[in-house]
C-alpha cells in the first residue's frame, strides 16, 4: 500500500497580496510556489506516495479547511509548508495546525520543508525507505 501524505500550505493565489508573506519570502511569488508544489508532488508520486494538497487562507477558514482535509482519510505523513511556519505573522496558525494534527492524525509523521522545492527532502527524513529514483 502506498504511503499517504497531506501537504498543507497557503493558497499560492494569496501569496502575492500578503505583506507578511512578501516580507518573509521576497524571492517567491504565486507562480514559483505553484511550480515548486507541482514538481515536488510529481517526485513524491514517482517515489510511491499518494499525495493530497490542502490549501489554506491566512486564518479565516484555515482551521476548518484543515480539519476537513484530515477527516477525509488517514495520512501517514503531514507536511506543513514553510509559508505557514516561517512567516512570523502566521505563528498562531502554525500552532493551531500542529494541535489539529495531533488531535485528528496522531499517528502521522510531521515533516517540514523550507521551500516548495524541498518537500521530498523533508519527507525522506521521516520515510527514508523512499529514496530518490536515480
Keywords:
134 residues, 7 helices, single chain
List the helices and strands and how they pair.
Layout: E1 4-10, H1 12-15, H2 19-24, H3 30-46, E2 50-56, H4 62-72, E3 77-80, H5 82-85, H6 91-104, E4 109-112, H7 119-126
Parallel strand pairs: 1-2, 1-3, 3-4
Helix pairs in contact: 4-6
Percent in strands: 15-25%
Q: In whole angstroms, how far apart are the ends? A: 22 Å
Measured as a percent range, the helix fraction is 40-55%
The major beta sheet can be summarized as: 4 strands, parallel
For the secondary structure, the number of strands is 4
Calculate the mean pLDDT score and round it: 86
Shape, principal axes of CA atoms = globular
In which order are the strands of the major sheet placed? Answer: 2-1-3-4
Low-confidence stretches: none
Q: What would you call the structural class? A: alpha/beta
- How large is the count of helical segments? 7
Order of helices and strands: EHHHEHEHHEH
Rg, nearest Å? 14 Å
Explain the overall architecture.
- The chain is of the alpha/beta class and 134 residues long.
- The chain has seven helices and four strands, in the order βαααβαβααβα.
- 48% of the residues lie in helices and 16% in strands.
- It has a four-stranded parallel sheet, with helices on both faces.
- Helix 4 (62-72) runs parallel beside helix 6 (91-104).
- The mean pLDDT is 86.
Q: What is the compact description of this entry?
A:
The chain has 134 residues and is α/β, with parallel strands linked by helices. It has helices at residues 12-15, 19-24, 30-46, 62-72, 82-85, 91-104, 119-126; strands at residues 4-10, 50-56, 77-80, 109-112.
Amino acid at each position: 500500500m502506498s504511503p499517504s501524505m497531506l501537504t498543507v500550505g497557503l493558497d499560492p493565489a494569496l501569496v502575492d497580496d500578503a505583506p507578511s508573506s512578501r516580507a518573509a519570502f521576497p524571492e517567491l511569488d504565486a507562480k514559483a510556489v505553484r511550480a515548486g508544489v507541482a514538481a515536488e508532488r510529481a517526485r513524491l508520486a514517482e517515489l510511491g506516495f499518494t499525495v493530497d494538497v490542502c490549501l489554506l487562507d491566512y486564518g479565516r477558514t484555515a482551521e476548518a479547511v484543515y480539519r476537513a482535509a484530515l477527516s477525509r482519510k488517514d495520512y501517514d505523513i503531514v507536511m506543513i509548508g514553510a509559508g505557514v511556519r516561517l512567516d512570523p505573522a502566521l505563528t498562531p496558525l502554525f500552532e493551531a495546525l500542529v494541535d489539529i494534527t495531533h488531535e485528528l492524525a496522531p499517528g502521522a509523521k510531521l515533516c517540514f520543508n523550507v521551500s516548495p522545492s524541498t518537500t521530498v527532502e523533508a519527507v525522506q527524513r521521516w520515510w527514508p525507505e523512499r529514496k530518490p529514483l536515480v
